[in-house]
Amino acid sequence: MLWRDTRLRLAFGLSIIMAVMLFVVLGQADADSRVPLAIGFAGLLALLQVFILIRGKGHQSALLKAQQAFVDGRYEEAAGLLEGQLEQYRANGQAPDLKLLTVLGNTYRQLGRLDESATLLQQAIEQFPNKAFPVYGLGRTRLAQGNYDEAVRLIEQALKLGARKAVRADLALALYYAEADQSRIIEVAQQTGRILNVENYRALMVNYLIATHTAEAQLAKRVMHNSAAGLAYWQGEAKRHATTDFGRRLTSDVARIEAILQEENSGHE
User: Fold this and answer.
1) Which residues contact 106 (CB under 8 A, 6 or more apart)?
2) How far is CA 4 from CA 1, 10, 90, 114, in A?
3) How far apart are CA 22 and CA 37, in angstroms?
4) Are 154 and 136 in contact (CB under 8 A)?
5) Spatial distance between the Cα atoms of 214 and 99, rounded to a whole number of angstroms
6) Out of 13, 22, 86, 101, which residue is the most buried by the measure of CB atoms under 10 Å away?
7) Residue pair 197/206 in contact by the 8 Å Cβ criterion
């Protein structure tokens, strides 16, 4: 909705304030002064609104470019754009917004800057409580750091706060590395498997967990074959976090996934 745009709310609020001020001033002015005063107030209001909207548009444009760079895997570019915005906020004595903090925190994670990622995402949670976006992001960072129990807690919290149901795939992986009860791991993995249009990389991982922990191996392996395009994501994750316990465990699981996919490919020849 347009009303969620901070720039529009600010411009609308400014209009109300200026209208009240104009009403008061005109009530005290003589007849000859009222028209020039009205024109002057209207011009000032227009200039202030244009400034607010243009300035906000520049920020939104940079954020959108950074988000696209993140999606494309151009993490250094995304970080540069977001850091520039963060510096502007600080220079103006303003608190950064939720999206900026969270996307930059997620970007730092993808660059392997895990401590910086955790710091920014924790700041976002404290500044904007009860928002799923940063809670999930911090859960992913704790997973990458090898703090699996904390990752489980945060991702479960994000789901309760309204995160997408597909996030259960990340919860299943966190439970697996936390060495949780096997029935719980499979329950969450199977819940994810029933979601329509889940991303290939998530479908690949949850069906890998199902294939290696249940009697439904053949069906799960067929789904893995159909989701093989998601393998590149996990290969990238393993490489990015190669020096952490998470990265080492994931490297081992990626090798097993590759072996299963190779078996499936051989069976389809």
Assistant:
1) 70, 117, 121, 137, 140
2) 6, 11, 23, 31
3) 8
4) yes
5) 39
6) 101
7) no
Contacts of 57 (CB under 8 A, 6+ apart): 7
DSSP H stretches of helix in the chain: 6-28, 31-71, 75-91, 98-110, 114-127, 132-145, 148-160, 168-177, 182-193, 200-213, 217-226, 231-240, 245-268
SS3 state at 123: helix
| Contact of 125 with 141, CB cutoff 8 Å | no
pLDDT tens-digit readout, 158-205: 999 999 999 999 999 999 999 999 999 999 999 998 988 899 999 999
223-247 per-position pLDDT tens digit: 999 999 999 999 999 999 999 999 9
* DSSP structural state of residue 230: G
Q: How far is 137 from 148, CA to CA, in rounded Å?
A: 14
Q: Is 25 in contact with 40 (CB distance < 8 Å)?
A: no
Per-residue model confidence (pLDDT) at position 216: 83
Smallest CA-to-CA distance from 191 within 172, 211, 163 is with 172
CB-based contacts of 119, cutoff 8 Å, min separation 6 = 105
Write out the DSSP string of 65-92: HHHHHHHTT-HHHHHHHHHHHHHHHHHT
Burial class of residue 195 (count of CB atoms within 10 Å of its CB; 0-12, 13-18, 19+): middle
Query: Cα separation of 216 and 212, whole Å?
Result: 9
Is residue 144 within 8 Å of 241, Cβ to Cβ?
Answer: yes
Q: Helices 132-145 and 98-110: crossing angle, nearest 10°?
A: 20
Q: How far apart are CA 104 and CA 210, in angstroms?
A: 33
